[in-house]
Amino acid sequence: MTTTTLLLLLLSILIAGGLSFFQYIYKAKNKSKIGWFLAFLRFSSIFGILLLLINPIITRNTLETVKTPLPIVVDNSSSISFLNANEKTIELYKKIQSNSDLQQKFDVQSYHFSDDFEPTETFNFKGTQTNIDVVAKNLKSIYKNAIYPTVLITDGNQTSGNDYVYSFDAANKTYPVIVGDTTTFLDFKINQLNVNKYAFHKNKLPVEAFLQYSGTKSVTADFIISQGNSVFSKQSITFSPSKKTATVSVLLPADKIGLQVFKATIASKEKEINTYNNTKNFAVEVIDQKTNIVIVSAINHPDLGALKRAIESNAQRKVTIVKPNEVKKLQDFNVLILYQPTTEFKTIFENNKGAGINTFIITGNNTDFNFLNQQQNNLSFKMSGQKEDYLSVFNGQFNLFAADNIGFENLPPLQNAFGTVTTKGVVSVLLSSKIRAIDMNAPLLAFTENQGKRAAYLLGENSWKWRMQTHVNNQSFKKYDIFMDKIIQFLASNNSKKSLVVEYESFYNSGEAIEITAQYFNKNYEFDEKARLTIAVTNSKTKQTKNYDLLKGNNSYKVNLDGMKAGSYALTVKELNSTTTYSGKFEILDFDIEKQFVNPDVEKLTQLATQTQGKAFFPDQVDALIKTLLENDEYRAVQKNSVTKKPLIDWIWLLVLISILLATEWFVRKYNGLL
After folding, report:
1. Mean pLDDT for the chain?
2. Which of 20, 386, 391, 524 could pair with 39 in a Cys bridge, judged by C-beta atoms 3.0 to 4.6 Å apart?
């Protein structure tokens, strides 16, 4: 409290005392006890009012000791249990976490991770994935700009996420504690299988297998690919201490249409501790139709290559790029992409009037818009010779097909001629355009469907930048390629509109996220937000059925079926109000990625420790780890002076007290006839 405040309080006492004495003592004719009581009431109320006006503040300085955080992060995935290291892991955690010297020096905090990261002091080692990268990301978020050490108790065998070695902050030391038996056992492993999800009927299905051997002697093993009781391929592979890996390529026949499940196995006469990683199941959907797409362009542009790569990411698509005068027979193609059409495209437009092939028209700086106005009647163009950059705005109400917003608002602008674009007839706009912050109320990506013929319009060039930007944002082209594939799928099909559309994969690996998406449309083919969708999933072997509700999301209904066991399943999606149903099937392949390891990844964890200037330890070195942490002078507790300012009085209660004092004074005066 300041000196000024104290002087004001003293002055308030004098004023309150003087006024109450003058009115009830000095001026009073009769000096009675009632006068002194009334003087006290008046003094208290006046002083209270002055106290409200002064509002004295008490300032308090508090010294606070801030310790360096010490996150102890424990691997909670099932690989720890599979390596028989769960008890040792808990023992190590308790020894570090309960050490009194560490608790005195550090703010010890406990976390666990598998596919996710969360604070906890209990562990069950049932996680289905190991993502050490998520540890680095969360620690950076929790301890922003702090200097701290990290104790990481793990086997280092990551099954998902980015490479964790360079994910951790290099300025903060990481001390991995490596759990699991480091003894080298004889082990054969199918490290990776490369196979396409789709194959075409009567074609050959290429399979590439990467095999790994761990051992100290020369051995021979057989690599076998089978389906049921049929063996399609069997090869003998020789391994030795100097040759511990092998790559095998096999061509399988795609003779049966539909989902085909195969088994890849590596086997030998040698005895192994872990035979689970000797087998991998894989599935291929054999289809009897391939979509042929032709891109017609009179110019060279990066968009052409980006379109081809995005479309052909689906093995069901084949893209051919040609000049306008090189198109011989339109009937050979399912979708016609016309890139920046000019008068050179006149023959193609005329021939397509008879062929009726669905078209995807992409405009740009070289487009002849007067010619384009003559060749189609869905959009009308009044364009100038000036170039302009157009940003995109996603339309969440678009309902021709399920389309996700891949971050269009943050993608680079497309370039097109400046002008006015108006729609004619029924045009569904997925992306509208804007120039800087001004909405143009014009389409950027639009679709039409008229008498069974479909068309798409992308009004701008440089869409290759979209594909590159989505890769920067997501470290993958997948989101953009799926978006482009949905456009091609819409154009490649002339099927009539369905009221219930369900999307899912034909097969999943055990432990993967299983998400099924559905859309229900009313009679006007508008997305029905009041639909009630349920799904029944039946195991084809046990005949056990489970029922789930689909929850409404953004322009679709979704359900997650995570945690289901391997096997074949039939699904039936039903809309309860209309009783509309959809049926299908999918396969969950038996594959537990957490059981693929026989040893911890010592090399990777040692590399992580070196990268962060820490040190890797084994379970029998935990005392050395504790000593290292205690002796490191970088991590010292810091004293901070915390200044708190608090009002001396609570003004609400003081106001109530003043009211009571004034009311009491009035009643006493009234009772004694002094009013």
Report:
1. 88
2. 20
DSSP 257: -
What angle, 0 to 180 degrees and rounded to 10, lies between the N-to-C axes of helices 33-54 and 651-671? Answer: 160
Distance CA 227, CA 231 (A): 6
pLDDT tier at 1, thresholds 50, 70, 90: low
Give the highest mean pLDDT range of 360-364, 393-397, 489-493, 497-501.
360-364
- Give which of 433, 431, 437 is closest to 419, Cα–Cα: 433
Of 582, 492, 496, the residue nearest 533 (C-alpha): 582
| Residue-wise pLDDT tens digits, 652-672 | 777 888 788 888 878 877 777
**What is the spatial distance between Cα 123 and Cα 115, in angstroms, rounded to a whole number?**
14
When pLDDT is cut at 50, 70 and 90, the band that residue 28 belongs to is: low
Mean local confidence (pLDDT), 16-30 = 72
Domains in the chain, CATH or no CATH each: 3-60+646-671 (no CATH), 68-183+599-636 (3.40.50.410), 187-287 (2.60.40.10), 291-492 (3.40.50.880), 500-593 (2.60.40.10)
CA neighbor of 80 nearest in space, from 116, 48, 29, 128: 128
CA dist 509 and 507 (Å) reads: 7
Distance of CA 184 to the CA centre of its chain: 37
Sign of CA dihedral 519, 524, 529, 532: negative
For the entire predicted model, the pTM comes to 0.57
Q: Are 585 and 145 in contact (CB under 8 A)?
A: no
Coil vs helix vs strand at 448: strand
Q: Is 588 left (phi over 0), alpha (psi -120 to 50) or beta?
A: beta
Q: 343 by DSSP, 3-state: which?
A: helix
Q: How confident is the model at residue 172 (pLDDT cuts 50, 70, 90)?
A: very high
| Tokens 């308090």 -> residue | 60
CA 512 to CA 516: how far, in whole Å? 13
